Amino acid sequence: MASDSNTTPHHALTACRGSLLWVAGFSLCLNLLMLTPALYMLQVYDRVITTGSEETLLMLTLVVVFLFMVVGGLEWVRAGILVRLGNRFDAWVSEPLHAAMFRRGLRHAAGQSAWPLDDLATLRQGLAGGGLLAFFDVVWVPVYLGLLYLFDPWFGGFASLAGVILLALVVASEKATRGLLDEAGREQSGARELAAGNLRNAEALDAMGMLSSIAGRWLTRHRGGLWMQSRASDRAAMLSSLTRALRLLLQSLILGLGALLVLEERITPGMMIAGSILLGRVLSPVDQLVGSWRGIVGARAAYRRLEALFREQPPSPPAMSLPRPEGRLALENVTAGAPGGARPIVAGIDLRLEPGEQVGIIGPSASGKSTLARLVLGVWPAWDGCVRLDGADIARWDREALGPHLGYLPQDVELFSGTIGENIARFATVDSDKVIEAARRAGVHEMILRLPDGYDTRIEASGGVLSAGQRQRIGLARALYAKPALVFLDEPNSNLDHRGEQALAHAMGALREEGVTLLVISHRTGVLRGVDRLLVLESGRVRLFGPRDRVLARMAGRDSEAGAGKVARRRTSDSEAP
Ligand SMILES: Nc1ncnc2c1ncn2[C@@H]1O[C@H](COP(=O)(O)OP(=O)(O)OP(=O)(O)O)[C@@H](O)[C@H]1O
Q1: Overall CATH class of domain 329-400+409-566
Q2: 77: CA distance to ligand 1 center in Å?
Q3: What pTM, to 2 d.p., does this model score?
Q4: ABC transmembrane type-1 domain: which residues (predicted)?
Q5: What CATH fold (topology level) applies to the domain 9-312?
């Protein structure tokens, strides 16, 4: 069972058609066997009672007992196939779905939610549940109807009418609940995301006494979703009770109709009883459909959402496999913004870095420094121009193959659930030597050894046992793991103490010796002491770029000019003052 990145739910269903055919086959046998009670009644009333033969009754009863044992066995096997069908479907879809979710998260700031996994669970349950069986059973309704018509056209007509009425109720149920259920689903998943965000920021909320007001926002959405869900459930329950009562009534009425036909000598008493049983078989799939309608509608909506997700986030075309880069970086007149965004964040960026060069990036807040990092690392695509690593367009590299050659320390360091060793090794197979080497280069080895379980200390996604500075230093070790060719550090010293800063300066020195290209964003000048060149960004454009000292001198000159300008303006205004 191999899923590839192109496997959509539709493809997975097609791949599972073998199992679906088996379920259809079992359903065929079961539906044929379900004629047993009707045939038994027919024989008992019309043969046993009229002849008084006890042996016939015994034989018929033994046959019926055997057939019902077969029914039990077939139902059991069919249920097992359905469970495996759900699992098979999941196995096909889960991996490409996880990748599509990821692509969505990268491309849309608002797309970082795990609803597709909920949808996958809904769909899997829909496949393994009774809703699917109802569809297989519905196919057999015409056979039962045909038999009823053979008994007597009045019988067949009555059963057809009953089927149509119940079907109309199913349609009404669908219409009455679909909109509400969709809306309820959206509200509830919104409420879940809100709660997850609140939990992530629990300390800040508690510290600033924001818990009750933020809980109020969550409650409004949660209750809104619940209210819509309840309204949909009320309507569905009303229609489903009506359907059940109607079905029982119709089964009694057909006995009355049968009695009338017996009195008119159009059918035998056996046919009268068998007819009632057959009507039950006609109506039961409809009843089943009503019962599982919510699940069916939910599964269908989940299927459509997942198909849309795969359509919106197609896998990237297979990329070139290139040799290990040396770290030559070129940004050729690059303009870019957030994926899906309307306005560019950086524009006309043009710079070239040789392997081993170190560049410091400075600029006011929101000038586009972190955006530049995302571009250089190929996380966000360039809207215009091109980002090249060793001459190759970074967008064309295979992400999995390129990753080990890049080191990235984001501004908000996220560590993942697992051990410190696993985090440094980027969750690939842990190579202890490489992990320790990366930790040493980041100057964090001693600090890790002092932790309760050293490299095996478990951390949770939020960081758990670690302080912000420790997280940042372990993040640096992760960025340096396995000697990448290009490293981008986004404010690597924002949480560091003096020793941490020293370790960082040491790591930068080691990177220079190894010929690793380094870009480092920082608001603090200490870390920029060792860089070769400085790039000053302002409003998404390069204001200054050149050797560090010259840029610093130009900036100092500008500042003093600006300062002198201010003084001159003040003097002028002073002199203009009355
Ligand atoms: N995911 C995003 N979606 C839309 N806009 C974004 C996104 N990330 C950043 N921006 C916008 O891009 C602009 C530049 O942000 P960026 O994070 O690149 O700035 P920065 O120079 O790194 O700022 P800081 O020094 O405060 O970290 C900001 O106006 C920000 O609102």
Answers
A1: alpha beta
A2: 57
A3: 0.71
A4: 21-298
A5: ABC transporter transmembrane region fold (1.20.1560)
